[in-house]
Write a structure and sequence with these properties.
The protein has about 375 residues and is an alpha/beta fold. The protein has 15 helices and 13 strands. Helices cover about 40% and strands about 15% of the residues. It is globular and about 65 Å long.
């Protein structure tokens, strides 16, 4: 019997939080029962394309410069396709995506929330759009999924039946990673505080503030390296700011990397001063690897798994205070690996457990 094909609507599949989580589930799910396909709203080649195609997934590239064109393009693809399940991961656009799926006759339509905020909230037009999409999402989906309760309450307010599937990671990969090769490659000296920030180079990730923190670390006399992993539109701006602040010796832009587990194993502290996040996969990964994290208080408190590895700092606090939290985090006592693993397994953060729950959702939807 052929597997049931599930279409995930994601916009694009680059190495970002939600996309990485989807790939973790895709690798683990029984592909003799469920095969994932992906709908993109870009013609660009994306980071995970090769792996998706190697796993027999199909990539459908949809055209459209505005919501109406994208809606029509998706509707036509769904009418011609063979998907009985559609799962949308695109925040408020999920309303239109699943409305197209409903009109196309797709019986199972899953809305999946990964975030707790949206930049469109700042404008009147944006708030009107959000209200319309929330109305659509109150009746168009047949099932609701979120990475945490805060993400569920944000996108699906008042919905009583939301399945919480935590952001899944390969726990063993991060627990057992060796950072020695990375330390040699990047020439990180012994005794130097290695600070790692993973995420797209874009305003919401707040790397510009990280550079201010780095300047304060340098002024305090700390021996440190700040390593940015990721690509994005802010790259040129950040490069110029590094030069302006005289941080050339302390800050490195590493671009996209596949060895995140090894980078974390080489790091003393994770840094995430994001303006908003849902339930960041990278913070689950850092706790699996035992890396202390200094993060903004705009990130959901659910991300702290009780291991003593997450330190929240206000975005309105000074760069000097952030720097002090980083130096303090670097001195934290290591949490035993078995305790970390048991905790993540207990709360369902293993990719194996996540894939099982997702398959159960498909079976009962």
């Amino acid at each position: 019997m052929l597997p049931i094909r599930v279409l995930h609507i994601v916009g694009r599949m680059d190495r970002a939080g939600a996309e990485t989580m989807i790939m973790n589930l895709y690798r683990e799910i029984d592909r003799s029962q469920y095969q994932f396909d992906f709908a993109y709203f870009t013609n660009d080649r994306c980071d995970f394309d090769d792996e998706i195609e190697a796993l027999d997934g199909r990539i459908i590239r949809l055209k459209g410069d505005n919501p109406i064109q994208r809606f029509w393009s998706l509707f036509k693809a769904l009418r011609l396709g063979d998907w009985s399940i559609v799962q949308s991961h695109m925040l408020f656009s999920t309303g239109l995506n699943l409305f197209a799926a409903r009109l196309a006759g797709v019986p199972i339509r899953i809305a999946h929330s990964h975030s707790t905020s949206d930049l469109n909230s700042s404008s009147m037009v944006g708030r009107i759009y959000q209200g319309a999409m929330r109305w659509l999402m109150s009746w168009v989906p047949t099932r609701y999924v979120a990475c945490g309760t805060a993400a569920a309450e944000y996108l699906f307010p008042g919905q009583p039946d939301v399945e919480i599937i935590p952001n899944a990671v390969n726990i063993d990969r991060f627990d057992q990673a060796d950072g020695s090769d990375v330390e040699r490659e990047l020439a990180i000296p012994e005794g130097c505080i290695s600070v790692l920030q993973v995420g797209r180079l874009m305003p919401v990730k707040n790397q510009a503030w990280s550079l201010r923190i780095a300047a304060s670390l340098r002024e305090s006399g700390a021996d440190f390296q700040l390593l940015f992993v990721g690509a994005g539109p802010d790259k040129a701006t950040l490069e110029a700011e590094i030069v302006e602040l005289g941080l050339d010796e302390n800050v490195k832009l590493l671009g996209l990397r596949e060895d995140i587990a090894e980078l974390m194993a080489a790091a003393d502290v994770m840094l995430m001063p994001s303006l908003h996040e849902g339930f960041p996969v990278v913070l689950v990964e850092s706790q699996a690897g035992g890396v202390p994290a200094v993060i903004s208080d705009a990130i959901s408190r659910e991300v702290d798994l009780g291991l003593g590895l997450v330190d929240f700092v206000g975005l309105d606090e000074s760069a000097e205070l952030w720097a002090a939290h980083i130096t303090e985090a670097a001195r934290k006592k290591e949490v035993e690996g078995t305790i970390r693993k048991e905790t993540l397994e207990k709360y369902g953060f293993s990719s194996r457990a996540g894939a099982k729950r997702l398959a159960e959702l498909y079976q009962t939807a």
